Amino acid sequence: MATSKVDRRQRLKYHIRKKVKGSAERPRLSVFRSNTSIYAQIIDDIQGITLVSASTLDLGERKQSSNVEAALAVGKKIAEKAQAAGILAVVFDRNGYLYHGKVKALAEGAREGGLKF
């Protein structure tokens, strides 16, 4: 039994990462959600580098940076940057968070922006 919410998410994260690996052909789209912002990175796990990143801090929406609309905008922004870098398909890593709310909105925004996963 996990002792805290952070421990539980860490355990879930390890189980997800055993199966979800990013490569050069299909890098990993990783999501991090804080109390004030939401962040997304596209990572090549083989080389260990971040190819593209976006967050609500990039959008300049400081007051409304933790809502679902901002997460949708971050998803569209990461898709736009990924396509500029030549990335069309990714593997989605929800990073231990439930696929609901902001995480789901970010994924839908990325799909609307043209990423395939």
UniProtKB/TrEMBL annotation:
This is one of the proteins that bind and probably mediate the attachment of the 5S RNA into the large ribosomal subunit, where it forms part of the central protuberance. GO terms for biological process: translation. Signal peptide: none annotated. InterPro entries: Ribosomal_L18, Ribosomal_uL18_bac-type, Ribosomal_uL18_bac/plant/anim. It holds the Pfam family Ribosomal_L18p. Keywords: Ribonucleoprotein, Ribosomal protein, RNA-binding, rRNA-binding. This is Large ribosomal subunit protein uL18. It comes from Dyadobacter koreensis. The lineage of its organism: Bacteria, Pseudomonadati, Bacteroidota, Cytophagia, Cytophagales. It comes from the Bacteria. Belongs to the universal ribosomal protein uL18 family. Part of the 50S ribosomal subunit; part of the 5S rRNA/L5/L18/L25 subcomplex. Contacts the 5S and 23S rRNAs. One of its GO terms (cellular component) is cytosolic large ribosomal subunit. One of its GO terms (molecular function) is 5S rRNA binding.
